[in-house]
């Protein structure tokens, strides 16, 4: 329950950093996505039971601030988190590798969904321009940002869900 | 009596010898002798003096060192405080320069009413070119109001909350601005893109466009007031098989360093949607 409530300050704080700083640090036209990375890192933690509330909070916050349709971040983040949960169930002994894997595919899925939605809403976007000027640079920035965000969220999850050690009598 | 005379002569002799020596010294005849005698004495004096000073410094140095260290620490702290003040004042100066420029612009265009706002963020999505400003409906900001700087057109208000608003920049891929070329008076449209490039479109092929031509808002469509500077033509793309020619417009506003903007609050965009015919089912 506490973990669900913590989604508001954590994701709200990250969104402030995102809009004030990260969105200004661009590579070509791409920028990192702290919310996506935070949700993926949260969902990949072995003791986190549910990431649904975090997805909804993150999606709603981004949908409220951003000009993209509200459902895009909710569905986009939901897809990335679903991928993270599937990956977590597999035998991934190196969580950081899983983080990078999900960051890569999660960014691609989220951007593809955004491009399709914007095209449907009448915004003239070409796939070539979107991929070369936005998605690929964003991918690079997300992979770079994945390490600190993973460390931060991993510590938070460890604090919220401490490891229970069972001692045999 | 004899002893008394002898003493007198002894005294006189001493005085005569002393006077002679003084006269010889004053006349410079004893200089080599004095030099030979004084040099070792001066050397000895110097040695004694230097040893004394060394001993004095040895005894007093620790106290002075502590004082100096404390003084140095205080000065370093003062320097750090002053550096922080300098940075803060430089920041305030930059903000003041931006505000003065906006104020000059507002005074030069008294027909409009403005609300100044700070840019506090950018859209999280890299596909969209929107900024977030710190003024909202409580300050009289409404949807569709044009946003400018002292340099030129920035965009229009896209969404409003009580204390903040989202502004769609003219570089956004879905932003269209009706414009005219200042020299040829020909009207066209600018379109943004996801790369931030602005293209000038719908210009007839027979129109002569020149590099550096100024692009101003035309006021058509009622979305923006007329005669606001948008940018300059920086490249012309003319193909004979196309109906219209296009050009690249270099915006006058530097959107990457946008800090403060002015919202024109007495301009209400005209809603053309009711006038557009809809197909009858």
From TrEMBL, chain A:
The chain crosses the membrane at residues 6-22, 51-84, 96-118, 130-153. Keywords: Membrane, Transmembrane, Transmembrane helix. The keyword Transmembrane applies. This is Rod shape-determining protein MreD.
From TrEMBL, chain B:
It comes from the Bacteria. Belongs to the MreC family. The lineage of its organism: Bacteria, Bacillati, Chloroflexota, Anaerolineae, Anaerolineales. NCBIfam families: mreC. This is Cell shape-determining protein MreC. GO terms for biological process: regulation of cell shape. Involved in formation and maintenance of cell shape. Residues 65-99 form a coiled coil.
